[in-house]
Amino acid sequence: MVPAVSADCSSTSFTPLVVLELASDTKQEAIAWLLSRIRDPHQNGGIELLVEQLGLGDGGSEKENPNLFLVGAKWQRLLSGAEEVGLFKEFSDGSMRGFTCANKHNFKHFEGDGDSFLSMAECQYIIKHELDTLRAKDETHVPGHPQAKLYPGKSIIRRLLSKGVLIQVFPLHEKEELKRLSYSWYQKIKLSFQPLDDIRRYYGEGQALYFGFLEYFTFALVPMALIGVPYYLFDWENYDKYVVFAVFNLVWCTVILELWKRFSTSLAYSWGTLSRKKAFEEPRPGFHGVLGFNPVTGREEPLYSNTKRQLCVYLVSLPFVLLCLYLSLYVMMIYFLMEGWALSVHDEEPTFWTRVLLFIPSIIYAVVIEIMNLVYRYAAEFLTEWENHRLESSYQNQLILKVLVFNFFNCFASLFYIAFAMQDMALLRQSLATLLITSQILNQIMEAFLPYWLQRRRNKKMMRKVQKRKAVAEAELPLAEQVRLEADMSTYLGTFDDYLELFLLFGYVSLFSCVYPLAAVLVVLNNITEVYSDAFKMCRVFKRPFSEPAANIGVWQLAFEAMSVIAVVTNCSLIGMSPQVKAYFPESETQLILWTVAIEHGLLAFKFILSFIIPDVPKHIQIKLSRLEFESLEALKKKWILYLVWAGPPLPTGQSRKLHGGPPCARGPAQRASAAVRSSPRTPR
Amino acid sequence: MVPAVSADCSSTSFTPLVVLELASDTKQEAIAWLLSRIRDPHQNGGIELLVEQLGLGDGGSEKENPNLFLVGAKWQRLLSGAEEVGLFKEFSDGSMRGFTCANKHNFKHFEGDGDSFLSMAECQYIIKHELDTLRAKDETHVPGHPQAKLYPGKSIIRRLLSKGVLIQVFPLHEKEELKRLSYSWYQKIKLSFQPLDDIRRYYGEGQALYFGFLEYFTFALVPMALIGVPYYLFDWENYDKYVVFAVFNLVWCTVILELWKRFSTSLAYSWGTLSRKKAFEEPRPGFHGVLGFNPVTGREEPLYSNTKRQLCVYLVSLPFVLLCLYLSLYVMMIYFLMEGWALSVHDEEPTFWTRVLLFIPSIIYAVVIEIMNLVYRYAAEFLTEWENHRLESSYQNQLILKVLVFNFFNCFASLFYIAFAMQDMALLRQSLATLLITSQILNQIMEAFLPYWLQRRRNKKMMRKVQKRKAVAEAELPLAEQVRLEADMSTYLGTFDDYLELFLLFGYVSLFSCVYPLAAVLVVLNNITEVYSDAFKMCRVFKRPFSEPAANIGVWQLAFEAMSVIAVVTNCSLIGMSPQVKAYFPESETQLILWTVAIEHGLLAFKFILSFIIPDVPKHIQIKLSRLEFESLEALKKKWILYLVWAGPPLPTGQSRKLHGGPPCARGPAQRASAAVRSSPRTPR
């Protein structure tokens, strides 16, 4: 039933693209059923992919999971899949268009059979899409696994995943390509931009946009860092001279976000994700409910009451978040107690050690903040999972909202309190510096070194095992070992944590860097190491992720913009509190506050007007998009006129010929098509 | 050449829909050319409409313009036109879908030939669209009119309009329908909603949305008016007790705008304009430039440098607007001088007459404001015309922006000054009342009675003429006379002024009604008369306008939302200034201001969050829209699968058959279509 396992995997007749790992206790009948469903032609409800079991390798130990399957496809199948998923590719005239098989020879880089037309990441994305759309026919459960219930139209892969029969689905790395990419990305020490196009080709648009944003953000910080250094060097004690810096901050954070929108649109256009339509979103794997009929699709699928979910959100999640915020406030108060105690010790008998002691509370607080963020993160994931969102996108939005609010509060509450309630700029500077440096160090350790170290240990174990078995020193691992090695690698969990880190750094810089101008310098340095460590992680530590088509950074753009609004308010308040400005209003504090508020309102209004005036899409891309739209409108019209011209002999339904050459409305689609066929040889193209 | 003029127009073989009025000195060859272009079949570049000259009537005087033409079309032509313009109609399952001739029998109310399927307004819209797309072929100018230059692809109607050869294009009224509509709309005295669906059927979606908004706005004001009356009656002198009212105001203006969005979406969905795609926008008739190639369409057409236009906007229009604002400020200062003088006269020797005198400056100022608004309006139109915008939409946006800024400033500057600089609530109340009442009275006179009176005079003259000629007292005018009468009616210039008036009223209510609670009552009364006078105007005073498909109130939604943000700020400040609130902070004014600002920021943030949380599209419509989208995606997929199943015998290009039943990518569109034809008889539907 299951095809014979070929010991040497180089004998597979196709390029393996994606690996399916089934649990080792999966029943043979379930495997046979799944493989035949994957291989079945379309008319039988299959998806026509190629699939083979991976060999155990020479003398494979019985501890290894034998149920690893390699999935691939013929080139023609991939091309038609590319049309189905709505892939955009470069056309011969340089514009980006939706790929169609009928038109394939008019696309750039389409040569011969087109077997090098799609990148491997695109092929893997197509395979994943096809696997996701493999649906149950009339099976009531997975053969041999009665607990894995099915109903007509249910995605089989999602059910297998949610029941733990399918452990993971992941795309394979390309060793040559990866070597080339990692060389140009992080191994070559040079001053140049990141190879965004190569990153996109290997990891997809979502990843490339993150690295593009990271790079953009770093470059945007450079002027700030350059201004910050002399400020820090020559005005260290005059921290009240920060008005100029605050004004700069204010303009800066508005402008860079607007420009990023334009830059990201350019990237998305050149990668063909800008005009791409979103596919219909399936329920996420963990979603459960009572079987019913979906009002949109009319299919039988689990339904879950929206009211029930809203109740969960407002009666459980919201109070929980508020409780966490209260807890965070409580911890902050303990920090201030410690701070006060350290200060009193220092004041009693100032020595070098008491000066060091002054920094200790901040450092402890910074570590506690990181730990609280981490713990809260898990709680938020659990809660959001429990809210049982139907779509992955709404799950993500709810999770991001929860995490953002808490992290913002947790990281910045103490700074706001010091700045506005205590109005102690010296403490603010010290606290900011300690928080920033501590959290950066912790992050780098948690994010890069720890996973790398774990991975190294795993790799070494694997290498030893292989060498023991083979007893020859081979540079290249055989495919089977490579697949097993990759299956053991950590899974990359998406760009969420990376963006969150950038968001908090953006907050530190835009909110308070006027009191501690070195913040921008620190963040620039952190970002540079972040580029390298993230690149390293992606290439060496993690399994290859499936590429995610993305046209922008999504909800993060909104988060950064919200932060920039808060930055305007904060910076205006800091300016209003500065001794320099206070000197202008010697008598009346009321006047000062009123002016500050008025200017702040003016700036906010100006910010909104600016975001209206600056178009999100650069002119030249706007023209290209309008041209495509215009062409498709014209094509529709032409089709219609052509149809009128070649309408052919009168039809039995007499009334439709009343008008000379008029549109034969009464015809069905079949006649319409036949008219089109008759006309096509004579049509001037 | 020109077809014989039939004296009695009842002999036209088609229902006349649209009238073209050419200048009386138009050359005969131009007329003959235009008519033949309109009548020509599609393959010759014509638009296949029916057109006939209107008779002069019995004993028509030589003073009358003979060049009036009636345009109509066969039913099949209109149906195919409906498909071309992308009209949405109700489908048999109750959803709204784009009309297609192939599918016509599945639409609701499609009976027999479908000759009552389209409303007259829809037919007229289709005719107008067809006329607009009538393009020059290789003519270099209009025959007989060498000054009216043409180039291939130029819209003929637009050129004729801009050169004054074509005086006007307007749709005809339906007398029966109009009688029925006007009865249910304004003649029947009753407490009921306006017949929005009938209005939409007769005047189109743009008009109906305006009346819908007017009605919605009036109802939304009712609770405010109900609260306002007891406030006014029992607290007249305690105008400092307005905190509750200000808070109510604040919540009210946010909520009603959010709810309106949902309501208008429901309306637009039920009228089929919500999902309708915008057609490609042609240059506006008055646009001029140097002939060049449009980068979007590739057509030869006039181009005008964007930089040049930007320079015009920023170097001429902007300074002009600022100058006007300065002038308005100057007039305001004169008003305050007058006010001060009147007050001093009253204080010297208070009598009844000096008390009346106190109101005189406000009344004069209100009249001056209205005059300035009117004059500025013309200036703004002239300037925007001179800026030479390519698209009607950008012309409209620029004009609305200019007019809104000035009107807002002109109407509210004095009130803001009184409220915040003078902090004189008694004067604010008096000034607000006078401004509001005077401007309402002036508006009603200018808008309804004046045009009505002019129209009556014209009507009477016409009736006399007709009766003189016919010498019989006929109740019904013959078609020819009716057309001439309508051609003489005033042209309705769109909803701009109506929305502007509502915008200013919304401003009066939301900004300051807490100090003068009767404002809401006055606005409700004004709106009720406005409904009747607007309805009357539309039915009796103006030519029928072409229907404008609209999915929302467009840029006005933005304007009202901006006003509601300003209202939050204003109301918070008014609350902060109230003696009641001041009593809570007896010592420190600074504390009071800081609290006010903090609460105001919180409210603004809450407002933005609210506008995110409340979905713009009601759930049940969201489901219907998703269903349509899902169905179209499924249809595409099905087409593709069907195509795979019935792919037929192997093709010469061998490589495309490598895959069993795979998609034959190598085939051209012709074979593809032929496969579809072969499959169609066997396809289960």
UniProtKB/TrEMBL annotation, chains A, B:
It is found in: Membrane. The chain crosses the membrane at residues 208-233, 239-260, 311-338, 358-379, 399-420, 432-454, 502-525, 592-614. The gene is ano10a. It comes from Gymnodraco acuticeps. Its main location: membrane. GO terms for molecular function: chloride channel activity. Belongs to the anoctamin family. Keywords: Membrane, Transmembrane, Transmembrane helix. GO terms for cellular component: plasma membrane. It is a multi-pass membrane protein. InterPro entries: Anoctamin, Anoctamin_TM. The lineage of its organism: Eukaryota, Metazoa, Chordata, Craniata, Vertebrata. This is Anoctamin. Residues 655-685 are annotated as: Disordered. Residues 199-627 form the Anoctamin transmembrane domain. The keyword ATP-binding does not apply.
